[in-house]
């Protein structure tokens, strides 16, 4: 047989391999092998079994579910926080505020409010919380200056031969320009900090309560409401100027009396900032603050709960003791809060359903002269009954968990007894605020 030519394939070579072993090239080829190709399944064959997937091995499928759940909870918490913020910080529309704060609009709203208060006076107190239904508009120096420049300047430019329609358009444009300049000035000026004035026995804090409201009705709730004994009494409305100056109109019925009046809304950010501001104005020489909350002073840093700051204070306009219309500035309320230095303040933890602020209807005039059947024991028990319904015991400081009611009662006694011991020679109180506009107030923060 002739040897193989150059074109013929090489002859087969037999290699003996020991049992249980394989050549290296076969091992490499076996590692590269993929899934075997199967012939197509005939249509008449029974269905193949569904493969069972182990949940522990399918990590990629479980991650989206967890992520989606976390996103759902985060979205729910964000929506709840936004809803609470929207409830606490209500705002009127920009156009409504822009037009409503014009000088002519303020004059018109004051007239309408006076007529409305006069009609309702037999059944309700006035917005100021008294028996005077007339509401005077707030007039500032720059209002008169801007009005003079805009209106007289427009008259000089356009001339005096105007029809009625042209006059309306002219003055409307002047009012709009006037309000635009005023609004721009407020933006340029920015927020101003509070100012503190100290006199013997008295600390006066002047604050600017910024808001974006126009004629909103205050939502009031009354604790232990009952029939009134005197329909003409108006002492219970002593704190209403605070609400009306910040464009929250209150309606107190003459037929009802109450133990505590609660302001449920609309709330302002300035309401929550007021309590820390007043507490920061209390010095070491003043009466100490009685804290029953588990806050920083109690050794626990926690801010996930609300508090009530309880003060005895007097309120007045920022210029005089009785010109309330001057305190109702467009876009803000300018008031003075007066704290007696020998009267302690109290801080207690409260539930999330507590109001924005609350006040007791008893005034300093009734306390000093014992009017309308006033007694310190009755007043103390009323405040304690109300606080017992709003205090959150889970956030009371650890050392007072068993005795916080006794400590709170002792603190309220110190407030009321201190009011009875006001020196008659302390003339700074009479100069700062009227006795009819002083009482116990609680601010949430």
From TrEMBL:
Ranges of Basic and acidic residues composition bias in the record: 70-88
**Region of interest (Disordered), ranges:** 1-88
Composition bias, Pro residues: 1-12, 37-52
Please state what the protein is called: Uncharacterized protein
Organism from which the protein derives: Neoarthrinium moseri
